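ok so for the tutorial part 2 we go from a plain amino acid sequence to predicted structure tokens. step 1 is just haveing the sequence, like this:
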Amino acid sequence: MLQPASAITAGIVVLAVITIAYGGTFMLRVVTGKQGANDLQKSFFRAGHAHAGVLVILGLVVLLLLDAAGITGWAHFGADGVLVSAILIPAGFFLSVIGHDPQRPNGVKALIWIGFGLLTVSLLVAGIGLIVAGANALS
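step 2 — the prediction. this is what the tokens look like for a chain of 139 residues:
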């Protein structure tokens, strides 16, 4: 059973998926040529959209796993961190190529690396939390 805070988080994330779906309509306009974009922008927009979808699903799965294992406290940072990285990484991809015909990404691409670092730490915390919970349940 989901903890109340996890249920609220999951509900917010499920509603936020609407923005990813809307991003899909944007991607359709880009790839069909109805929305102007150079090759760099097309690549970064595709990467941003893909990362958003995958990381939201991963964040919800981690949230469910932590709740199913009865994990509370510090290890729950794992799920929250994955979900925050699902915002930072795509934002870095999209916002770093905003503008008319950019030739290279701007400094906002740092969000990609910040998000990747947060994702790594979050997965470490969640994974270790799950292993510890499992080991404790065995004893």
